[in-house]
Amino acid sequence: MGTMPEKKPKTARRVFTLILAYIMFCVAGGVVASGFLLPAVMGANAMTKSLTSSLKAEDIDFDLADLPQQSRMYASDGTTVLATFYEQNRIIVPLKNISDYMQKAVVAREDHRFWDHSGIDPQGIARAFVQTYVKKGDTQGGSTLTQQYVKNILIDQALEDNDPIEAYHAQEETIARKLREMLISVELEKKYSKQEILQGYLNIAQFGKSVYGVETAARHYFSKSASELNLVESATIAAITKNPANYDPTVNPTESEKQRNITLDLMSQWGFVDKSETDAAKKIPIADTLHVQDVSVGCQAAGNAAYFCDYAIRQIENSKVFGETLKERRQLIRQGGLNIYTTLDVNAQNSAWTAVRDNLPEDDPSGYENILAAIRPGTGEVLALAQNRTYDVNGAPGTTRTSVNYAVDYKDGGGSGFQVGSTWKPINFAAWINAGNSANEPLATSMHYSYRTIPDANGSGVFDVQNSGGGTVNPETPLQALNQSHNTTQVSMAQRIGLKSIADMAKTMGYHRADGTDITTYNPSMVIGTEPSSPLTMANVYATIAGNGVACTPIALTKVTDSAGKNYKVPSADCHQAISSEVAQTTAYAMNLNVTQGVAKDAQLSNGRKTFAKTGTSEQTQLATSGFVPQVAAFALITNAENSGVSLKGTINGVYRSSWYGADIALPTWKEFMENYLNSANIPQNNDYGNPDPNMIRTSGGSSSSTTTKKRSSSSTRSNSTNSNSGTSGTTGTTGETTDGQ
């Protein structure tokens, strides 16, 4: 045991000498794969026996396109970057897009004989051998730039294979590892040109913390492309690779400047640049050269588009087109160099972000959420998603930081949904006229409806319902009921056409619960908006009305390509004619009357633009407004998402009210969004939409006299219903529009 410390250095020197002799023999004789001295080398140390199966490069992938690269998400304009995703922040570029200064700087710093050797440099090895083993100075490896490229490739390949042990062996300081690198390097230079190897190295090398590849480095430190790097900038970046943590100019500017100057001296010493140029460059303070651009990662860095970003990413994570398993899909996002093109409209997103905060600030003492979703009719394209919260994957309950995207379904990162109150009533109206009935037919109403008189109702007993403040209007037409947001007439309509007909119409128009299921248990309270839904789903239902009856599945992606140019099939909007144009336009006509003559008059947009809107309140636990113009549909919702079912009351945004309604905060949010977006995007007016079918608004006789006329609507229930409304956002019992019109 006592002799081991003395024996190990001798053995190491002997092995190194034999390796050196072998390599020099190969190079001098022009033989790359000579086996003449290899047995002697392999027999010199038992440790090298394990290398016999790994001395070839056939199983090593040197394709640059397979390197881990950052993925980028773009807005609908195709140029605005919303977010980047990566494990190694890298952008691959060809050598022709890297400045000549940068190429010379890295060769001067790392391997000035790069253009002359065949993958290994006997002079460098000899120099390192003398320094390390004869003079016993600091350990030097004598690695060529080609060897460093091989080392980086081996490390990356091991990490991609999730093999940390192999990654360790790929960088440990042993003769076995060096021998492997040397032999692979020689073989590599047989297959690739010097330019290709230099290109590979510049794209794989680390140039700082989370900065991989020269293009990313150029953008990060100098806010420019690698093709634009000048002498000073190139020397700065080239020096970092020696010690990425300590030579980063944003971390250690003093040491970085020192190392930059060393690189400049080497460039002139080896004849790459005239000394007068490098002397002038050394006088420039490094602080004067930096124009740092933060390298942000993930949706958390996407600013006001963070929730949309999260929604879009989940479309990839939920699709097997991008990988068989969730793990594979996430790895593709972080490493695949994807270009993800989305439907997000920058003007719409900015308008939505501003509107939800103007009308209910994030730090409002009420703690309530303001949520908005917008969609383009006839396309399924989601234009904006916003809520008065800060996107934070580490957010905690009771704070304003959360990763829960309340605007979307549960599978897309949202919650369990929210009751939508009277914003449901256009669905009832569409089902009514679609069944061949007239919007102007007077209906007898009541405040007490037996379950057995309502087709398809599940349960038994009596459904008690009334308009706001008590009472009902008897008789009343469906058109009048929609304009005044009365509840009792909704149940009378259901008595005629059945609850299943209404549920089918909702599904046809794009409705589903936030958990992704359809309505299969029919409770009479559904006609006044007790079914839970996400804001995006309701915006999409209204988009069907706005789109002349064309229904689409919401989409966030328009195109996804990888670094090799492969196109992935993105989820389809599946746009189709869901309801007739006549039903869509007649329903739109009724909603416009709700603005011009009914309770949603405050939703009227400026300059006489024809406006279609409906407000809603669900027992004051949710306040909502939904509406559209032909080019955009949006849904705004105020709620207490973390304590669903608790009534919204007291002071909100500095205003005290004993009761809050859909017209109070949700309507101003919706209107501000619409006004700002329509103006900023220069969307022209289209006042020709909303022409009713004469047969659907025919007068069918009878008079409309009111037993009790009220402006607002509310409901209470008394039944033995088997439908407990499970899956709603925390409310209990059967609820509906308690108020509407403010």
From TrEMBL:
Coiled-coil ranges (or none): none
GO CC, alphabetical: outer membrane-bounded periplasmic space
Compositionally biased residues, Low complexity: 698-742
Single GO biological process annotation from the record: proteolysis
SUPFAM superfamilies documented for this protein: beta-lactamase/transpeptidase-like, Lysozyme-like
Domain spans labelled Glycosyl transferase family: 81-267
Keywords recorded for this protein, A-Z: Carboxypeptidase, Cell shape, Cell wall biogenesis/degradation, Glycosyltransferase, Hydrolase, Membrane, Multifunctional enzyme, Peptidoglycan synthesis, Protease, Transferase, Transmembrane, Transmembrane helix
Keyword Cytoplasm recorded: no
Ranges that cross the membrane: 20-42
Catalytic activities: Preferential cleavage: (Ac)2-L-Lys-D-Ala-|-D-Ala. Also transpeptidation of peptidyl-alanyl moieties that are N-acyl substituents of D-alanine; [GlcNAc-(1->4)-Mur2Ac(oyl-L-Ala-gamma-D-Glu-L-Lys-D-Ala-D-Ala)](n)-di-trans,octa-cis-undecaprenyl diphosphate + beta-D-GlcNAc-(1->4)-Mur2Ac(oyl-L-Ala-gamma-D-Glu-L-Lys-D-Ala-D-Ala)-di-trans,octa-cis-undecaprenyl diphosphate = [GlcNAc-(1->4)-Mur2Ac(oyl-L-Ala-gamma-D-Glu-L-Lys-D-Ala-D-Ala)](n+1)-di-trans,octa-cis-undecaprenyl diphosphate + di-trans,octa-cis-undecaprenyl diphosphate + H(+)
Penicillin-binding protein transpeptidase domain mapped to chain residues: 374-653
Region Disordered, annotated ranges: 685-742
Taxonomic superkingdom: Bacteria
MF annotations from Gene Ontology: penicillin binding; peptidoglycan glycosyltransferase activity; serine-type D-Ala-D-Ala carboxypeptidase activity
Similarity comment: family membership: In the C-terminal section; belongs to the transpeptidase family.
Protein name: Carboxypeptidase
Naturally occurring in which organism (per UniProt): Bifidobacterium tissieri
